[in-house]
Structures are given as C-alpha cells and as structure tokens.
Amino acid sequence: MEKFIIEGGRQLYGKIEPSGSKNSALPILATAILAESPSVIHNCPRLTDIETMRELLHYLGVRTEWVADHTLRIDPSDLSSYEAPYDIVRRMRASVCVLGPLLARFKRAKVSLPGGCAFGPRPIDLHIKGIEALGADVTVEHGYVNAHAERLKGTEIYLAGAHGPSRGATSNVMTVAALAEGETVIYDSAKEPETVEQVKFLRAMGADIEGEGTGTIRVRGVNKLKGAEFSVMTDYIEAGTYIVAGAMAGSEVEVVGDVAENLKPVLARLSETGCKLKVSDGSVIVKGHPRPSPVNITTAPYPGFPTDMQAQFTAYLSIGEGTSIITEKIYPDRFMHVQELARMGADIRREDAVAVITGVEKLTGAVVMASDLRASAALVLAGLVAEGETHIRRIYHIDRGYERIEVKLAGIGARIERVEED
Fold it and tell me: b/e map of 194-203 (b: 16 or more CB within 10 Å)?
C-alpha cells in the first residue's frame, strides 16, 4: 500500500492543468454500450475508477482499449451479459450507471447494489422509480437490483428526491428512454454539467433528446443508436481543488481549462474570503490568501455549491480568521475528513450535518488516514500548508479521481512524494 509524504510550507507558483472529468467520463462509458458500433472517447482520465468501469464493461462482453494516452475505444458489438457482479460494482458507486443501458439493450438487467466512498447511505430509490415508470418490473433481492420488461414505453417521470435531483438516476432514465417506445419527459432532472455532457453524447449517438441543463429533459425513443466520437469535459472539481490549493499556499497559481462557468459558487465563496482571482475563458489565476475571512456555505445540487468541494473548503477555512459554518445538504455524513484535520490542529466541531470551523493560525504535520476521494484531497491541501511533514495513508482513494496529483502539484512547487508504506 502507498502513502503520500508532504513537506508543508512551500509556496506554489505556475500553471497546473486538470484532467478530463471522472464524473462525466464514467456515465459516458456506460452509455456507449447502448450503441451497436464502437465509440471513441477522448480526454478520458487515467484513473482507478475508469479502470474499474473498463473491468465491468469487459465482464459484460464489451471490448475496450486505450488507443492513445487519454483516448479510449469502446466496442459493444459483443455485449453478451446483463449482469453486473458484486465483486466489481462494490468498488465504485458509478457502476450503477450500467443499469439503464443493460435494461435498454436486453430488456433485463441484474446489477449489484453499488459501493464507492463510505460517507453514509446513498440509496438508488430514484433509479428504480424511474425505470419502473418506463415499464420495468424491479425487485431487490440478495443485494442485487433485478429489472426486466416485456416492453419499455415513454412516459412522464418526476425525479426529485429528498436532497434534490439525482444525476445517477437521470443518467439511467435517459439511457432507457433513448431506446424506449414513444416520448419520455423527465421532470426535476439533474442540471449538472456532467448530465449536459451525457445528453450531448447521446445526441451524437443518434438519440432524439433535448432540454439538458433546464431541469426538464425530453427524449423521443429511437430504434437503435450508433457509436460516436466524443471528448470528455475538463474536471472542474479537480480544477477547484487546485484553485483552493493556490488560495492556501500559492504566490500565483494558474489553473488551466475552461472551468470558471461550472465553478461560479466556488469562486464566489473564495472571493468572499478575500482571495484574489483573475478569471478568463481558458484559466483561473489565484493569488495566495493564507488567512481567509469566514464564510457560511451550504452545499446544494448544481448550480449550487458542490458537495464535492466541501471537504477542500473545510481544509481552507480551518486556517482562516474567525468562525465559518458549512452545512452539508447532499450527503449529511460526508465529514470523515474532520477528525483527520483535527489531528493536524484544526478546530472543527461537527453538529449533525453542520461543521463549525474556528480558524487557527497554523496546522501541523501528522500521520492521517484518507477515508474517501474528496477527504483525501482535503488532507493533501492541509499538508501543503502544515508545519513539518504530513503522511497521508490509504491514498488509493485519491487515485480514484485525481490523475497523478502528486506529479501535478510538484510541478508548481509542492514537496510531495508517493512512497510504499513501511
């Protein structure tokens, strides 16, 4: 097992470029199996989660190959299985994205209940509700979702849940509707950029679909879809992580990529803390602001403040002046990073879904444990500014969503290395 060793206190300077978006690429790879011919996906990140999805696709009979460093070819012409097994699905929640495409292709699907980051329950009730509305009979037995349908027929579906729209449920319903009979209207659909990109990919495959980003998606089913060539969007959460790194430890850091539009609430909150930003279509330049002013943040579905940036902001505000409050409305248990930040000297009090952060003058290096993907990123950020050395264990979590993060950060001056555990 590997860990990171970070020597804190080094100033960051220069350009850093995020990879393609994991959260966009994964549903696109699953969607590609709807076609009867190959697709070519460019700007696909080289991540553990992408390899897990490839393993799942191979199990289903789909052939995939890297034809260039970040270009993946997906050939579903030999798709032969409708079962996604526990041993693969348990490792990554996004595996549930194959439920809709398998049901659309085979009129049946058997998919293990998903795993992934362990920060509380994330039920798939909206996924089930959506595909049942399209005509599927669904049971959950022995840890598997079993769905079958004699006929899939378009209808009107309302997908709002207790915490707002579901990106995953929207993904599965869209893919089923693309090959169902008649018209489907999905109300309260996800508005995230990843959903918009998936709709664009479906349209490139020949789907009759519109309304992306509006909260109401309309799909008119077609008889078949073809493979398409598509480029994955830049990962704006990775970009946001590097922007926060620049705010905490940078003299001047330029994060390259067209990400500002998708990061509006993040950039607005950074500005409120006193951070200086220069925003353009092709990059965001951030100047270090090591003692941010306090802010109150509540996570929300897009276009609100993203839950995937909550942990990074917790690290940032932990070295601020005054008291900040973060309320987690999407995943109320997503605070496993708090106890590890406390080991580094952070003063954070958690009250259910609320973190009360009293800023301290400095953090100190410690041995800490990564618990999930974004918590890992928060610990890296804290390590960049902590006094002394920070050892971050279980970094396989961060490899699920950040491609060569230690190489990228070292390129702008961080002292960070990946080593084998003793």
Answer: bbbbbbbbbe
Burial of 256 per CB tally in 10 Å (0-12, 13-18, 19+)? middle
For residues 223 and 275, membership in a common domain is answered with no
Q: What average pLDDT score do residues 66-82 get?
A: 98
Residue 246 domain boundaries: 2-19+234-420
The total number of structural domains in the chain stands at: 2
Mean pLDDT, residues 381-397 taken together: 97
Asked if 80 and 117 sit in the same domain, the reply is yes
Cα dihedral 20, 22, 27, 28, rounded to 10, equals 20
Specify whether 117 is catalytic.
Answer: yes
**Are residues 343 and 217 both part of a single domain?**
no
What would the pLDDT profile of 330-366 be if each residue is shown by its tens digit? 988 899 999 999 999 999 999 999 999 999 999 999 9
Q: Tokens in use for 395?
A: 């970094």
| DSSP H/E element including 372 | none
Place of tokens 């790194």: 245
- Residue 223 pLDDT > 80: yes
H or E segment and range at residue 44: none
Q: What is the pTM of this model?
A: 0.96
Last residue of some domain: 211, 231, 251?
Answer: 231
Dihedral sign computed on CA atoms, order 308, 309, 312, 313:
negative
Q: 150 — phi, psi (to 5°)?
A: -75, -35
- Given 44, 97, 117, 275, which residue is catalytic? 117
Six token digits for residue 23: 């959260």
What whole-number distance in Å separates Cα of residue 378 and Cα of residue 290?
15
Q: Per-residue pLDDT tens for 39-54?
A: 999 999 999 999 999 9
Query: DSSP 3-state helix, strand, coil percentages of the chain (rounded to 5)?
Result: 35, 30, 40
Domain co-membership, 80 together with 223: yes
Question: Residue 287 to residues 19, 38, 259, 280, 295: CA-CA distances in angstroms?
Answer: 22, 44, 17, 15, 18
- How many Å apart are CA 252 and CA 378, to the nearest integer? 20
